[in-house]
Specification:
With 132 residues, this protein is α+β, with helices and mostly antiparallel strands. The protein has one domain: Glycoprotein, Type 4 Pilin. Helices cover 43% and strands 13% of the residues. It has two helices and three strands; from the N terminus they run H-H-E-E-E. A three-stranded antiparallel beta sheet has the order 1-2-3, covered by helices on one side. Strand 1 and strand 2 form a beta hairpin. The protein is rod-shaped, with a radius of gyration of 26 Å. The N and C termini lie far apart (91 Å). 14% of the residues are buried. It is a single-pass membrane protein. This is Type II secretion system protein GspG C-terminal domain-containing protein. Pfam families: N_methyl (PF07963). It is found in: Membrane. Keywords: Membrane, Methylation, Transmembrane, Transmembrane helix.
Length: 132
């Protein structure tokens, strides 16, 4: 009796391999997306810290915080105003001459602070740095 010469894969084998590849791909994409969000959030927090340091330097020289941080801090205390990785806004508000808030939008969530951080579609800021 002559043995059958099998060439190629059966339909079941192909379906099993395709399913395994799809599962691995989905896990990789979900992990990669979460990592990107965390990286962008870390950059936002670092940007706010950079602005905070510039504000403190400004206050040390002038005795009060500026009314418009971007106008007064750029060139003298910052080379340029930091930009959000997804084009949202960093919102500076001078509460009094001696206090301020800095707001940003974090993709990983947070508590709404009631300030619009711009963007398209518009989002509400959910991260705040305040002094004191």
């Amino acid at each position: 009796m002559k043995a059958k010469n099998k060439k190629g894969f059966s339909l079941i084998e192909l379906i099993v391999v395709m399913t395994i590849i799809m599962v691995i791909s989905v896990v990789g994409i979900v992990t990669f997306t979460g990592t990107n969000e965390k990286a962008r959030d870390s950059k936002r927090m670092a940007d706010l810290e950079k602005i905070r340091v510039a504000l403190e330097l400004y206050k040390q020289e002038n005795g009060i915080y500026p009314t418009d941080a971007e106008t007064y801090l750029v060139t003298e205390f910052l080379q340029e105003w930091p930009s959000d990785p997804k084009d949202y806004d960093y919102v500076y508000t001078q509460v009094t001459s001696y206090t301020y808030t800095l707001d940003a939008y974090l993709e990983s969530g947070g508590t709404s602070v009631g300030t619009s951080c711009g963007g398209s579609p518009a989002v509400t800021c959910n991260y705040r740095v305040r002094n004191p």
